[in-house]
Amino acid sequence: MQSTKLALVAAAVTLPLATPASATEDDLNVWTGQFVTIDLGEDSNWYIRGEAQERFTNDADRLGQLLLRSFVGYRITDKVNIGGGYAYILTDPVGPAKTNEHRFYQELNVRLIEKDGVTLDSRTRLEQRTFEEGDGTSWRFRNFVQLRVPITENNKLNLYTEPFIELNDTQFQSGGLSVWRNFVGVTVPLGDGITMVPGYLNQTVFREGRENRMDHVANVNVFFAF
Fold this sequence. Notes:
Distance between the termini: 32 Å
Radius of gyration: 18 Å
Number of domains: 1
Largest sheet: 11 strands, mixed, barrel
């Protein structure tokens, strides 16, 4: 099994480092996130999740985006859960106008593999995005796939990939592949129910009619489970 784990690591490490060659404008970011999951009773299949994410952009010089997200989920089995929620996103880039986004979303989470400490998880999310600065609803599809492989007794190598597909053409999106994120990091247990995941995230933003942007992100997330 050890050789299988090493093969998985070797194959998966290349995924977060593979980015489209067309991305030519680079930016250094620092992203932090706090995620809390609370079970609604010992015998209940329902749970709630809340999160806050702070994204410092433009060479990590300023808070370019603040995301606050809530979620209500239901565990169908120990490997499948569904749910939906709401998110508020304040985006304040240099140059383009500031936007206030209200986002409703639905998601399906499935554990595809669980063996000898190795897990492979999929999260499929459908978003309906509205903006105070404009009209219409922007629909977007995201599919997140995450691999975790033990590397020590307490730590796991954590890798994920997530493309963003815009499903319609609106004032705030043009349709098609818009963003692709790839991440490599390590889980670090901090205490009972508390885990930190520091790592490197590479984000390519595909921009119609101009150069794509590649963000190099120092990403640190902390997860709490109760």
